[in-house]
Amino acid sequence: MLTMPPAPTLRRAVARRDRRYDGAFVYAVISTGIFCRPSCPAPRPRPEHLRWFADPAAAQAAGFRPCKRCQPQHGGGRLPEWMQRLIAQLDATPDRSLRAAELRALGLHPARVRRAFRTHLGLTFAEFARQKRMQRALNDLRHGQRVTDAALTHGFTSERGFRAAFAKAFGASPRAALRLQPITVDWMPSPVGALLLGVDATGVRLLEFAGEGAELAHQIERWQRRLGAPLQPGTHPLLELLRAQLEAYFAGHRRCFELPLAAHGSTFQRSVWQALCAIPYGQTRSYAEIAAAVGRPQAMRAVGQANGANPIAVVIPCHRVVNASGALGGYGGGLWRKRRLLALECALTSAQAQAAVDR
Questions:
Q1: In sequence order, which ranges of 143-185 are alpha helices (DSSP H)?
Q2: Catalytic residue among 36, 67, 70, 318
Q3: What domains lie within the chain, and their CATH numbers?
Q4: Residue 318 catalytic?
Q5: pLDDT tens track for 54-80
Q6: How much is the mean pLDDT over the chain?
């Protein structure tokens, strides 16, 4: 049986409509006979009417039917359809600004649009539109357009204002940004909560447990500093491949990932992450065993730090490292996630599960 987050976490997630836990569990309401995902916008149910299930199949087996608003039976992983349409409109009319009146004409309330973009992408709609515009400007510069011409093309009245906007978007001047390789990011729900995915032309750069709203914005800023490259929401063939392999893994149909990885770290960290990838599916290793595998048998503390610094969770399986005693040890994403990943891989012993039940 798959483990779920602790009960207080479940209640908080539903009370806050926390999108980060979509996919991690569903809740059912006994007074209505309906089950929902944690982020469902429906009125919050009375606590005594709640029942918890690890997945939609379990809720349906118990006689509950899926909510028509949040459709918890569909894994999804995409932005809401109306957001996709709005982004497509931005792409189709790159020089047009969609102001509040125009959003209302499309049947969208500006405040709702702002909140949704902030929640899903860590940017307000205005910030997202500006980021899109700066991406197009960067592309024009890469094709030889002068800075002054790019500024005028993309609606700036002065080169100074363009340079300031460019520095805010990419953390660099137009000349320096030409050397940067932006990281394309997206998110997806999973049985261990929402995941933030990031790739570029070199491979998978980032996979971690996604925050929400302001937390997601801070998360993106932190990773931009660490990776030395701008993170930009968008689409990429490697993102689709990563998403497909993750979905197969969580469904129990894939035991290893076949993806180009481009984890950013020191030589020692990369050696530890390579050793993690060598741990077979369904098995665990101790920190001491990993230290021996990288030729540093006394460096167990350093191995633990490198394990915690892993930028590509799940795919680089840091969850398969446990204490020498067999206890689960720590996990940056929370022990309930580690328990669930190990349970999925049948690597969690009954003793480990019992020892970590209340943590």
A1: 147-153, 159-170, 174-177
A2: 318
A3: 7-66 (3.40.10.10), 81-177 (1.10.10.60), 183-235 (no CATH), 267-355 (1.10.10.10)
A4: yes
A5: 888 889 989 999 998 888 877 555 567
A6: 85
